[in-house]
Design a protein that fits this description.
With 181 residues, the protein is an alpha+beta fold. 37% of the residues lie in helices and 29% in strands. It has a 5-stranded mixed beta sheet.
Length: 181
Amino acid sequence: MKSYLKKFISGVVAMLTLFNLFGCSSNQIDQEKIAADMEIILTQIFDLIKNGDKETFKTYFADEALNVSDFEDGWNFLLTQYKGDLLNIDCKFPMGEGTRFVPGERIQTAFTTFNIITNENKYVAYIDFYTQYSSKYPEGSYKIRIFKLLTKHMLDDGENFHDCSLRYGIYYPGWPVPEVN
């Protein structure tokens, strides 16, 4: 009887180990790695904003964000909004994530907020980005779909991030957001 119990327990342990290695959790993103990568990317992005380098800045964005009619308005807002030398970037966890499959595609996205501190101001940035889009962007390319940068003062005055997921592009005051039915 004991040998059957040992075999049963060994079988259950083996199945749990295989499920843990190859089950649903394998689709989850490594939030700490992505946050560290995005902190590097955001450092580069803020340098580009500070230096007014729109063409290089655009290389960090997904096609959906670049193709909105008011991308230029968002860029111009960032030029006036972001001030100072970057001192700190800190990701606020947990990160939201999504995976979907369409014929021939595996698409993974993530979204989160970052606390940004410069020597002149404090900001909160909401970023929604691809972590993988198999035919367009390889894993780790982190192409941004939505970028919203607010000062802490704007947040204190009632501005929020609740309308972010309704459209792509770069936020600016007056950013038109479609109505949700």
